[in-house]
Structure formats: C-alpha cells, structure tokens
Design a protein that fits this description.
The protein has ten helices and no strands. Helix 5 runs antiparallel to helix 6. The protein is an all-alpha fold. Helix content is 73%, strand content 0%.
C-alpha cells in the first residue's frame, strides 16, 4: 500500500511541479514563447527580463506555492489513502514513520517536474523557487534561513544563480543542524545537490566571469533559471 501511495503521490507532485508558470505568463501576457527570448529560461529571472517585475513576482510566488503544495498534498494523501484502502485510520506510528517518506518523494518529484516539465518537452527552470516552497513546508525555519542566504547573496553579488546555490548549501547545513527525521534530511540534501547540478552551466560562466548580473541583459544562450 505504501508503494502504491508513493507512486500516486509522486505522479501528482510531478504534475504540480510541471505547471509551466513562466511559459504561461509569456503566452497570456504577450503571446510569446518565453523560451525563445532572453536567456530562454522559463524561470522568474527571465520573466523579469522579458515581461517585467510584476509578472516575475507572480511567477515566483506561484512556483514557491507549487513546492509547498506538493508536500502539503503528500502529508494529506497518505492518511487519506490508508484509511480508504484499509477501512481504518493509520496508527500514530504509521504516520510518524511513513508520512515523512511520502512527503520526501513528493518534494523530489515536484522539483523534477519544475525542471523537466512534461508540458515543455521535459525542459523548465532550475527549481530554486519551487525548492524554497518545499523547504518552507518541511521546516519553515530552514526555508527562511535559505531565503535569507539568497537575499544576502543577491544583495552582495547581484547574481541569481550564485545566490540560489548559496541558498541550497545553507539549507543543507541548516537541515543537518536540526532534529529533523531522516527523510527530510534526505529530501533537502538531495534536492539541494540537484539544484546545484542544474546550475552547472552557470558555474562554468561564473568561473569564466561572464555570468550576467541582475539587471543586465542575458546573452542569447546564457542565463539563470529560478
């Protein structure tokens, strides 16, 4: 039963993450495919450069909500599915043991959905905003710590990709410093490493000193995706 719940939860969380917020903003507001403009990203940074600050803010907030929604859904779905299939409520031990694992799978699935959307031929953003939503749902102090690290990094360097990776590293450090269950440790560590790997092209540009700063125009084949 738990594996069936995991598979169903994973699929639904992936589809939540796959909602192409930035792409839809471009189509609805200007009738354009944002993937052929600016950095060719569907993330909030390219929305900011292409559509303006208010569309970018909406895209950012929706992407954060996608991450939080997947975790909240998973926490509701496991006891609901258990009760439906077993005609009994799960015990406290069952909830304590399995709910974090279901939430962990859902959290990873929503990150994958945002980065590899089925609606965009398995392309998408780099999952930083969606990752923040996952963090806030799992442990809001860790989420706020990561958001603070992002803000400090952005104020200091004005480079979104660098700030996103600093936030991911901060989240990993913070989750390992708190008394969270093993599934949430795994979720944050794996999710943080996934985000950093998704920024590998940005890392190369950072090393070359050509990564665009916030407010600068992105070359056609560069850019940062949130």
């Amino acid at each position: 039963m738990i594996w069936m719940a995991d598979v169903l939860g994973l699929a639904i969380a992936y589809l939540i993450g796959s909602i192409p917020t930035g792409y839809l903003a471009g189509k609805l507001l200007k009738g354009i495919d944002i993937r052929v403009h600016g950095s060719k990203s569907t993330g909030a940074t390219n929305v900011l450069r292409t559509l303006g600050k208010w569309p970018a803010l909406v895209v950012l907030l929706v992407d954060v909500l996608k991450g939080a929604a997947a975790v909240v859904f998973a926490r509701w779905f496991y006891p609901w599915s258990y009760a439906r299939w077993h005609d009994a409520q799960p015990t406290a031990l069952d909830l304590t043991t399995w709910t974090p694992w279901v939430a962990c799978v859902a959290g990873l699935a929503v990150l994958l959905g945002h980065g590899r959307s089925i609606w965009l031929s398995f392309t998408g953003g780099k999952s930083a905003a969606t990752g923040l939503g996952v963090l806030l749902a799992v442990s809001w102090p860790v989420g706020l710590g990561a958001a603070t690290a992002f803000g400090i990094g952005l104020a200091a360097f004005r480079i979104v990709s660098l700030s996103s990776m600093l936030a991911a590293l901060t989240a990993i450090i913070l989750i390992c410093s708190t008394e969270q269950s093993l599934p949430y440790w795994f979720l944050v560590i794996a999710g943080g490493l996934y985000l950093i790997v998704r920024h590998r092209a940005n890392i190369q540009r950072l090393r070359a000193g050509i990564e665009p700063r916030l407010g600068q125009s992105s070359p056609a084949k560069t850019g940062s995706q949130i």
